[in-house]
Write a structure and sequence with these properties.
heterotetramer; A: 340 residues; alpha/beta; Rossmann fold; five-stranded parallel β-sheet; 7 strands; B: 329 residues; 2 domains; seven-stranded mixed β-sheet; 19% strand; globular; binds thiamine diphosphate; binds magnesium ion
Chain lengths: 340, 329, 329, 340
């Protein structure tokens, strides 16, 4: 594992990172419980990606830097400031949910104040939005950077390449993060591309591509910090590829047994970043069992509170279907109306 | 005849055509090992091998574009778009390329390609804005394509076989709610259902309802309900939008003089507009009431929350209400 | 008021808005040094610099997608698609993204973006299958977009300014034949024309013609010709398809009871279907003749040879013939 | 210049290549004349690209290998067997034109018997068709290869990257040829990408990318021959980038004076491949002035004949607009009909 002092992290940072990973994991687990109880139709998980996500987000300045997460990035959005209550409101599609007021599926994060940009289900499109946001930031003299992520499957979309190209030509302050978990639903990375690393493609666009161990939040943080510094200095984009494991099926709709052996999943679970990072912190004397249990309890309280709050919150009303279609009211016809 | 679900019919059509003709291949995201996210292609990779059942990279433009190339060189590809919503990255390949090869080469080349797309949403689908869209109006506007939306398992199998054997690109739309909830008799052996003719599913003298896909079933339910109170509906299954069976549509409209067009897709510039326009052109002098459309509203899609699903989607009750109003006009 | 061509009006609107508001930027293929292949942006890169007038890579999805990002972060981009035909590689970014940001984020984000597209063809354009297409029906079907097609230089300038100031994505369609052949009075200073209202360009009691873009002018010529033999036409300029001015359309249809809808785009599932459907819904009881559409045929496009250009394209003579038949019905 | 013997070419080949380049050039020049006389609305030129085009096509087996040219590839289509008459019929949009019977613009080649696949105006789309054709060829046990070309501007389209990706994963027998003339209409290659060579991107897809001097038909031939051999042996794709000069404006609709200095164009003309190759052949004793003039005369006769033939040929009839929309007659509605 990477040296945390050299990476510029404090002991407090490390425990903070662990707590963020833990919170993401426990919220995620709770979502599965609610799903299995029939109270929520859909879960898409961050499990196995937490170290990569928290490592990345730790290097951002919340509210200043733009965040274009993809659907697994629960660890990212929590780290930059979304609250468990907000996450659960979105998860249960409540009217009060900050991302979409119940319009979008879980995992489609949006939070204007935190500069978390609304996401589509259509994979990879956000890479181009990131380039545009970064272009605008630079033009307006801001020194914000733009984080944008996607899986190794999504990386095969033409839009990602077009985004790389803009970032290269205009030396844009974008950090592309590919969370490579070796599967796109059922399809192995070996069927997605003929090369080992998505990061190898960055050279073709004139900026660095970096491969990091996505189970090590410190290594990820270090790569990200460097990328953020380059970006802020006007030196352009970086592509970071974090090699991670997907510990669960693609989503609550998936069953991975036809395409993934149980042994492989068991092997992956041994490298669960939550376990390995906790062990390391323990070894380095930064987190004893008592503190860890305290954190667990604290996180559980937050998850319970969020669940309870969100479960009580109101659903949107039928008439909410028709609102906020346009930002500028149209000159004829008014708001959208029922289609009858 | 055995009863099958809609998705079994789709599966069987692919299976039988692949067995019959070695030039038929299937490509798409997760269609291989996973058998498709809806399991339409379960078992096919085991049976036909991974050269003919291809788990593609996650890039729809390439799925369509590569399939076009295959079709140009002697294969008969079935390209699956995992969700119709994700056909838009491939829109250029479908619109500019697949649809135009034959015409632009003055008949020199042709593209025997089927693009299968699960579409639509509604209560219980939980597909939200990007796993629920109806996309037929976009594709039906493109000359050179054929665009069909079977409603029954019988048609699903017969029309898919016809589509695979057709030498033109066919957009084949499968409603997700139909997959497991719609059952019907499906012969075991080989048969095809031609791409084009509409089918009158029920006859009645008061109101003519035009519908397709899953909405056919909601319309038939509505008609059944209305019949109890003496309102008799003709229900026309417009299972092909391109070509469109103008003759059957005009005749069915003239028959009752009262027309209701139903679809789940957004209202404006939707497929219902074309049907209504044809009625206004071909049956106007027979009409006793304004044409009426009952459709999804003009918002981007079906919100995830169940409240939105119910509010957005036409159903038997809404259809019955609209048809009754027409009958009483 | 000075007389200007259509393209001068487009140029002036961009120039004035860029001078007025430093957040307005222009991006597209060849829009910089070359001033656009139609010269709509001549001189702008010299005036506003290459940060604000951007010669983009040849990749339309990136033009739209990057412009969306700019719009999310405080700019007001004008994205030019060199030809409307080449907007299809960007279809996904426009359909799934630009149109949906505001709705999907429950109003949290908005995309003040104008996508300008030269469209259409006809005799003398020589654009063939891929530089002549009318694309309005695709975009008008997408909730969340605004879609306008000005016909006059006055509207071109006023509506483009309104579009740039609008907080929603606007598809702004400019007919290539209008660029240099259509002239009209254009005030020098600042004014806007709202996006939505249709405009009655001529009043007459026999037949109502609905048209937009370049077809407006062919329709007006036809109306003038018909007036000589006593057939008086109302000509409605449907310059916005989304939002669509249903009220004005219904009123104008009721006025004469005879309706002709004209467009250059392919007939089936085209914009004319929606207008015809509205007439059938809102004015049916006033109609004295079947609704009629005069449009481009259902073939992929306007062939290159002049013979094809003439055969494909509606013109004043064809419109006059159709309107006269309606008047005599 | 590359060694032709080493490349496996004969003296006859070289003169043949020169003749093909000359024919392409003279046909192209005639098209401009007809355009300026008002007899043809549009020209898109191969001038400056001929060496690259003929060098590539010389390594193909006509009628067996698939050819997906782009609009500048007059030198390619002539070399694989299109006749000057056919070219001129297409150029004048005559009914008899093999590519489209007057439907498409000039330069949109199609010739089923020669396996020249119909092209779109929409740039870059053909890269994916090539991948599909190659996949099918391999599946059917053919050892044909597939040539597909595009400019360095078009290379920025997402579709090109998706095609590279398929070619890499399935080791497809495709030869991607990028004719890099440094301009996409008016836009400099430096605004198209942050790297020097499109070919540098091939590595990211797992196959070789090669840069060649596109003014040297022998060098191009050698690179192409190697690529064809690899492809036939099942070793997969190659990307060849030929650096060329565009000697004229983008098309007859373009005026390049706002974006290209006259000096630059004059410089480019000094490296005109037709001149440099002729000089070389002369130096090597393969082409004296007399033979060269003979070739000029022969080519002129072919161009005159083609012009005359095509000018006399019939235009399509109005009713031809409606035919050949579908290959399988639709079950209702029949052929397309006028839109009135
Ligand atoms: C354009 C598009 N096509 C298909 C899908 C369906 N889909 C959702 S996630 C997914 C797999 C994504 O894999 P990857 O990018 O590797 O991310 P991961 O889920 O493994 O983190 C697919 C195919 C989609 N959302 N968007
Ligand atoms: C998708 C698409 N966008 C835009 C155009 C318009 N266009 C035609 S050629 C061209 C430039 C092509 O440049 P390049 O690829 O470098 O090829 P070159 O013409 O230089 O050989 C452009 C922008 C088009 N044909 N297709
Ligand atoms: Mg993955
Ligand atoms: Mg070029």
């Amino acid at each position: 594992m990477a040296d945390w002092k050299e990476a510029g992290l404090t002991a407090e940072d490390l425990v903070g990172m662990y707590r963020a990973m833990l919170l993401a994991r426990r919220l995620d687990e709770r979502q599965w419980v609610l799903n299995r109880m029939g109270r929520a139709p859909f879960v898409i998980s961050c499990q196995g990606h937490e170290a990569a996500q928290v490592g990345c987000a730790w290097a951002l300045t919340p509210g200043k830097d733009f965040v274009l997460p993809y659907y697994r990035d629960l660890g990212v959005v929590l780290t930059v400031g979304m609250t468990p209550r907000e996450v659960m409101l979105d998860f249960l599609a409540r009217a009060e949910g900050p991302s979409s007021g119940g319009r979008q599926m879980p995992g489609h994060y949006s939070h204007p104040r935190l500069r978390i940009v609304s996401q589509s289900s259509t994979v990879a499109v956000q890479a181009l939005h990131a380039a545009g946001i970064a272009y605008a930031a630079r033009m307006r003299g801001e020194d914000s950077v733009c984080y944008v992520s996607f899986g190794e499957g999504a990386a095969q979309q033409g839009d990602v390449h077009e985004a790389f190209n803009w970032a290269g030509i205009y030396r844009l302050p974008v950090i592309f993060v590919c969370e490579n978990n070796k599967y796109a639903i059922s399809v192995s990375h070996t069927k997605q591309m003929a090369v080992e690393n998505v990061a190898d493609r960055a050279a073709g666009y004139g900026f660095p591509g970096v491969v990091v161990d996505g189970s090590d939040p410190v290594a990820v943080y270090r790569a990200m910090k460097e990328a953020v510094e380059r970006a802020r200095k006007g030196e352009g984009a970086t592509l970071i590829e974090a090699k991670v494991e997907r510990l669960v099926p693609h989503s609550s709709d998936d069953d991975d047994r036809t395409y993934r052996s149980r042994e492989e999943v068991e092997e992956a679970k041994k490298r669960d970043p939550l376990l390995t990072f906790a062990e390391r912190l323990k070894k380095e004397g930064l987190l004893d069992d008592a503190r860890r249990e305290e954190l667990e309890a604290e996180v559980k309280r937050a998850v319970d509170d969020a669940t309870e709050y969100a479960e009580k919150a109101a659903d949107p009303r039928p008439q909410d279907l028709y609102t906020r279609l346009y930002a500028t009211a149209p000159a004829v016809g008014g708001e959208a109306a029922p289609g009858a | 005849m055995p009863e099958k679900t809609f998705i079994e019919a789709i599966h069987d059509a692919m299976d039988e055509e692949m067995a019959r003709d070695p030039s038929v291949v299937l490509l798409g995201e997760d269609v291989g090992l996973r058998g498709g996210v809806f399991r339409a292609s379960t078992g096919l990779i085991e049976k036909y091998g991974e050269r003919r059942v291809i788990d593609t990279p996650l890039a729809e433009s390439s799925i369509a574009g590569v399939a076009i190339g295959m079709a140009l060189n002697g294969l008969r590809p079935i390209a699956e778009m995992q969700f119709a919503d994700f056909s838009f990255p491939a829109f250029n390949q479908i619109q500019s390329e697949a649809a135009r090869f034959h015409y632009r080469s003055n008949g020199g080349w042709s593209v025997p390609l089927v693009v299968r797309m699960p579409y639509g949403g509604g209560p219980g689908v939980h597909g939200a804005l990007y796993h629920s869209q109806s996309v037929e109006a976009f594709y039906a506007h493109i000359p050179g394509l054929k665009v069909v939306l079977p409603g029954t398992p019988y048609d699903a199998k017969g029309m898919l076989k016809a589509a695979i054997r057709d030498d033109d690109p066919v957009i084949f739309l499968e409603h997700k709610r139909a997959y497991r909830s719609v059952r019907g008799e499906v012969p075991d052996g080989d048969y095809t259902v031609p791409l084009g003719p509409a089918e009158v599913r029920r006859e009645g003298r008061h109101v003519t309802i035009f519908a397709y896909g899953y909405m056919l079933h909601e319309s038939l339910r509505a008609a059944e309900e209305l019949a109890k109170s003496g309102v008799e509906c003709t229900v026309v299954d417009v299972r092909s939008l391109k070509p469109l069976d103008v003759k059957t549509i005009a005749e069915a409209a003239r028959l009752t003089g009262r027309v209701l067009v139903v679809h789940e897709d957004n209202r404006s510039f939707g497929a219902g507009a074309e049907i209504a326009a044809i009625v206004a052109e071909e049956a106007l002098m027979y009409l006793d009431a304004p044409v009426r459309r009952l459709t999804g509203p003009d918002v981007p899609g079906i919100g995830f929350n169940h409240v939105f699903e119910v509010e957005f989607t036409p159903d038997a009750a809404k259809i019955a209400r609209a048809a009754r109003e027409l009958a009483e006009f």
